[in-house]
Amino acid sequence: MTEEINTPGYDIPPEMEGQVAITTLDKIYNWSRRNSIWPMMFGLACCGIEMICAATSRFDFSRFGMEVMRPSPRQSDLMIVSGTVTKKMIPQIVRLYNQMPEPKYVLAMGACASGGGPFKEGYSVVDGVDKFIPVDVYVTGCPPTPQALLHGLITLQKKIDKQSIKNVRWYSKDPVEPIPIPVLGPDLMDPREYALIKQYSTEKLVEDQQVPAVEEA
Amino acid sequence: MSEEVLVEEKTELEERFPEIGRDERKGYEGYIVPAEKLVEFATVLRDEFGYDFLSSVTAVDYLPEDWMEVVYHAYQTTGGPGLVYKVQVDRDDPVVPSLTPVFPGANLQEREAWDLMGIRFEDHPNLKRVLLWEGFDGHPLRKDWREAFYEGDGKPFKSRWPSGEVIRAEENNPFNKNVDYPGGFDPEQWTPAGETAVYAGVGRLDHAVSETALSTDQIVVNLGPQHPSTHGVFRMVVRLEGETVVDLEPVMGYLHRNHEKIGERNTFLMNIPFTDRLDYFNSMSNNFGYVLTVEKLMGVKPPERAEYIRVMMAELTRILNHMVAIGFLLNDLGAFFTPLLYAFEERELILDIFEAVSGSRMMCNYYRFAGVARDLPEGVFEQVKNLVLYRLPGKVNDLDTFLTDNEIIRARAIGIGVLTAEEAIAHSAVGPVLRASGVPYDVRRADPYGIYDRFDFDVAVRYHGDIYDRYLIRLDEMRQSIRILEQVIQDIPEGPIQEGKPQYQVRVPAGEAYGRVEGPKGELGFYVVSNGKPNPWRYHVRAPSFINLSALEVMCKNYKIADVVSILGSIDIVLGETDR
Q1: Which residue among A109, A161, A166, B288 is least enclosed by CB atoms within 10 Å?
Q2: Inter-chain contact B132–A124, Cβ cutoff 8 Å?
Q3: Does B187 contact A198 at a Cβ distance shorter than 8 Å?
Q4: Where residue B205 falls among pLDDT bands split at 50, 70, 90?
Q5: Looking at the complex, does the CB of residue B257 fall below 8 Å from at least one CB of chain A?
Q6: Nearest alpha-carbon partner for B137 in B118, B113, B151, B154
Q7: All CATH 1.10.645.10 domain ranges in chain B, comma separated
Q8: What's the gap in Å between the CA of A170 and the closest CA on chain B?
Q9: Nearest to B258 among A56, A83, A125 (CB)
């Protein structure tokens, strides 16, 4: 690890060896961030239990600098979406995501969070949390084993290593807009899609009137 | 109770109520009660015939026959078989009198039937949606209601089998996600109603406020759904007078995964892995309940060795669950994470066994109709033996030594969250919650299933009904489970583990069945209606975590807000099962 930071590609003159270390800002910045990712204590379903397992003695993700799980989004860097995201829950998840300070990451743990999983066809299940918030790492499994979650976290560390202070989103000049919070209507509504919803409903009404309605409204 | 007495009692009941008729359909049992007689019938049944425990309330939509049926399962807390009664109502205007005044335990179940089936319960104190949100379009468990990703009425879908082509459901949806809207809907004009309805639930000011106490404003505090103490995505809205709880309303549905709707599309076999995900700590005992119910319909029984393996897995699950439940309870009492680490250590050892037999740590999918999926692999029996005989008893004693006399635990748990025996029965509380209130009711003993009648064990019971007793009873039950496991280890025979050939598509004759097991969290019931097709017509889960919550308000009232968290911890809920 230390070697990795200390080899930025600049040669140290022989007389200075052992006295100075040269590194790049990116490397030291990412190194400190990648080793202190604080996940949010946020268990949604079955996967949440395996997430707790990953924190207990057998798997112990504090070995990777993640032992501090924070119940508050204001103090966390990583949201592990551990379980099925339902339509009733997604407004809260988006709100929590908006409340997290930058830099922030999202890990979709398990089949449900990644794409709806076994419950995808259900009427109140969101088919993947990435329909609403940006996801950095997907972990497969139902539920993923703690080892798989650890692999996902290591993947996230690798992703952090590749980021550069020059172009990360949270240092850009443009303000970062919060994600609009979905609204619970007759079904889940994304405020960005109101025009589309209205158009669809109007067309559907016309269709329903042409063909005698069979199913209940 | 002997069979003879039962028959006599039933005729007595029929004499008393000439209006009721026996359910004559093939494969069905029980009585059909006219709606206007229901409350009287249930009251008499409770007060004079001893059926004081209303286990399950659910509804079935008989679309081809054009009626809906509300099904009640009543039992006696002294033990014995149950009694089923039904009310048939019109599909277009389904109105049934509410049983909540007679059995407060029907409260949440009736709300669920309103939410998912659209049955209106007259005189229900708080009839609003429970799993979905106010404003949701339609009642999804009705057979003619279709969701956005609807593909067919029964699996396997033609798009997947036998040709094997797969379509992504999103591709057929104009929004590219799992949503659909009614015709003529205008989102700009929409006002979401959900939160107002939730807060209105605790807004009732009919509670007498003590005159001697300081006059303070009552405030409403919201706990959850994102809160570390709620064991998942549960939410409580609490009305406080100072620090004292005046009113509390549980709000759930944040993990409603449409278990029942999906279950009615699945074939019978496909449902087994879904039951794993109900109470995700105890996948083995969930499997047990479901296969038992379908076996009842099919009229088959597993061979001896499979019976023993089933009991072995179910009891290991109970130990696992109680260990973790105690760990989480300590979390809620403020001993953050350390006791839980000890609990999870034992859990890991038990999960190793589950992984060896089933291939998966948590979602075991191990039980099959008339058998289990595979025999114990080499070495696993030794592993179980070492664990049960030499390790677990000591670990349970360790918990006892470290926790039972701990001053903080005693101060925070004794006399807090009291639920009396009468209240527990009336609220249909089950499992450790019921037994800690002094009712020795355990399905393994009261209405034995599998081979539980062979084992020598005591039904653990405690009498104070507070958090402390609910903690102690879990220790007791772990010791009893170890006792059962010792007998299993001694008696387990060699032999086949599956009756007949394992089948992908089982034939289930038409009829209904209600099967229940004593899960670690309490009585877990499955109500399955088959019409002879490959998919169940109705598939309902009587979830102990869900129904135990109807007693939460009673337990929390007049205690401090800080106790609410530990009272909830002592009920031991799992949201996968609460919301299904």
Answers
A1: A166
A2: yes
A3: yes
A4: very low
A5: yes
A6: B118
A7: 259-579
A8: 26
A9: A125
Kindly report the nearest CA distance between residue A135 and chain B, in angstroms.
Answer: 16
CATH architecture of B259-579: Orthogonal Bundle (1.10)
CB contact under 8 Å between A187 and B174, yes or no, is no
- Summarised one tens digit per residue, pLDDT across range B349-401 is 999 999 999 988 889 999 988 889 888 999 999 999 999 999 999 999 988 99
> Does A53 contact B344 at a Cβ distance shorter than 8 Å?
yes
Lowest model confidence (mean pLDDT) among A60-69, B104-113, B404-413 = A60-69
Chain A contacts in chain B segment 340-359 (CB below 8 A) = 340-341, 344-345, 348
Q: Do B149 and A121 touch (CB under 8 A)?
A: yes
| pLDDT computed for residue A211 by the predictor | 58
Which residues in chain B touch residue A50, judged by CB atoms under 8 angstroms apart? 361-362
pLDDT of residue B133: 86
Beta strands in B206-254 (DSSP E): 218-223, 235-241, 244-251
The 3 state secondary structure assigned to B465-522 is CCHHHHHHHHHHHHHHHHHHHHHHHHHCCCCCCECCCCCCCCCCCCEEEEEEEEECCE
What pLDDT band is residue B210 in, cutting at 50, 70 and 90? low
CATH of B3-122, picked from 3.10.450.50, 3.40.50.300, 3.40.120.10, 3.30.460.80, is 3.30.460.80
Question: Is the CB of residue B289 less than 8 Å from the CB of residue B308?
Answer: no
Rounded Cα distance between B476 and B462, Å, is: 9
